Amino acid sequence: MASPDSPHSMKKLLSFFLSTLFLTIVNSETHCRNFKSIISFGDSIADTGNLIGLSDPDDLPAAAFPPYGETFFHHPTGRFSNGRLIIDFIAEFLGLPFVPPFYGSQNASFEKGVNFAVGGATALERSFLVERGINFSYTNISLGVQLKSFKDALPSLCGSPSDCRDMIENALILMGEIGGNDYNYPLVLGKPIQEIRELVPLVVTTISSAITELISMGGKTFLVPGQFPLGCSTTYLQSYKTSNTEDYDSTGCLKWLNEFGKYQGDQLQVELNKLQKLYPHVNIIYADYYNILLRFVQEPAKYGFLSRPSPLPPCCGSGGSYSSIFGRSFGLKGLKCCNDPSKYVHWDSAHMTEAAYRLMAEGVLKGPYAIPPFDWSCLNPEIKNSGSSDTEHSLM
Ligand SMILES: *[C@@H]1O[C@H](CO)[C@@H](O)[C@H](O)[C@H]1NC(C)=O
Ligand SMILES: *[C@@H]1O[C@H](CO)[C@@H](O)[C@H](O)[C@H]1NC(C)=O
Ligand SMILES: *[C@@H]1O[C@H](CO)[C@@H](O)[C@H](O)[C@H]1NC(C)=O
């Protein structure tokens, strides 16, 4: 019988280590992909024009009017910001065109990307939320509806089933941010937080099912963002204002709301870890929007933002109500905006500026806010290093 330290068992041990090493290398190599397109689902954080495309021309959303779009596009595009969104910076980084909106588009080419994200969209079906007393009128294009639109459009997007599988396999699939509005609407309606917490597992399951379905269609790489620190948002700092100083953390954010945001992010990560174990050949990456934004709020000056007043006001309409910026143009007239949006984290009371989105995209693509981090080892150095040359501040 061979003793544990015999040459034979040493050799076995060595070959075990070598094969583990080999497997690790092969594994990490398979996760680096030269993405050929971006397929996106979500809400206003990633909407590049869908809500406008779906809207009655007499009842357009805020993002159809100046000063939305003023900084980069120099006209409104339907993006809920002054310029580019995270999805735009991801497209730039990958050397792909900006992802065209699917809804209401005419003659758009979807070969290198298609975007189903709609401002105001929820993860859960509208009818389900209305049944629970959460009535809202912005849009009924929930995640399920977006996914159905994608499936219905496949023949025109990519032709044959094998071509479609190929397209989906080589795409970076942005799954969200989605779910924020499932919480925003009941929060605005003043529903008890306990009732809202009950929605979290349902939202997480809905996101998880959508990913599973896309995996069955060939999906290989998913970027799945969590929620923002809601307790730092202007909207809620106003509507849940209290004289109880205990309710606020050292940066002036509402503790109980941030705890909720963290809770939902944790639940999402647990579910994504489960999915990752079930589908080891797929790469599921969590984008930690919560902690990126928290850093801006905690140390704004470090990232080039104004640090006063505290809490940080949005560039536009610091006194604006949620409805005035979120859905329709109602209340937009007279919206006052700052002169230099690049110094602000928040654009309006529910969305970030281009400057903040740029840093967020960087923090996910190249920094520590993608879990696990992206592997760009197979790309040429030119691409890997792009995107930060014109950036003064960095999250890395
Ligand atoms: C779409 O393409 C058709 C045919 O090429 C053309 O007649 C039409 O003007 C185009 N529409 C838009 C909005 O560009
Ligand atoms: C929801 O709100 C709309 C108006 O915004 C109203 O017409 C509708 O009846 C409401 N539905 C329910 C179930 O309350
Ligand atoms: C969404 O609402 C519109 C207008 O009320 C309606 O025509 C459409 O059928 C709805 N779509 C879905 C998927 O529920």
Structural write-up:
α3 (86-94) crosses α14 (354-365). 41% of the residues lie in helices and 8% in strands. The model is unreliable at 20-29, 320-325 and 327-331 (pLDDT under 50). It has helices at residues 7-31, 50-54, 86-94, 126-131, 143-158, 161-169, 180-188, 193-197, 199-216, 234-239, 255-278, 289-298, 322-326, 354-365, 381-384; strands spanning 37-41, 113-115, 171-175, 221-225, 283-287, 346-348, 351-352, 370-371. The protein is α/β, with parallel strands linked by helices. The strands form two sheets. A six-stranded mixed β-sheet has the order 2-1-3-4-5-8. The chain has a two-stranded antiparallel sheet with strand order 6-7. It has one domain (34-390): Rossmann fold, CATH 3.40.50. One 2-acetamido-2-deoxy-beta-D-glucopyranose binds at residues 140, 145. The site of one 2-acetamido-2-deoxy-beta-D-glucopyranose has 2 residues, from loops. Keywords: Glycoprotein, Hydrolase, Signal. This is GDSL esterase/lipase. Pfam families: Lipase_GDSL. Belongs to the 'GDSL' lipolytic enzyme family.
Strand order, largest beta sheet: 2-1-3-4-5-8
- Our Rg estimate from Cα atoms comes to 22 Å
* Low-pLDDT runs: 20-29, 320-325, 327-331
Overall pLDDT confidence:
87
Share of helix among residues?
Answer: 40-55%
What keywords describe this structure?
396 residues; alpha/beta; Rossmann fold; 6-stranded mixed sheet; two-stranded antiparallel sheet; binds 2-acetamido-2-deoxy-beta-D-glucopyranose
How is this fold's topology laid out?
Layout: H1 7-31, E1 37-41, H2 50-54, H3 86-94, E2 113-115, H4 126-131, H5 143-158, H6 161-169, E3 171-175, H7 180-188, H8 193-197, H9 199-216, E4 221-225, H10 234-239, H11 255-278, E5 283-287, H12 289-298, H13 322-326, E6 346-348, E7 351-352, H14 354-365, E8 370-371, H15 381-384
Parallel strand pairs: 1-2, 1-3, 3-4, 4-5
Antiparallel strand pairs: 5-8, 6-7
Helix pairs in contact: 3-14, 5-6, 9-11, 12-14
Bound molecules: 2-acetamido-2-deoxy-beta-D-glucopyranose (NAG) (3 copies).
One 2-acetamido-2-deoxy-beta-D-glucopyranose (NAG) is lined by residues 140, 145.
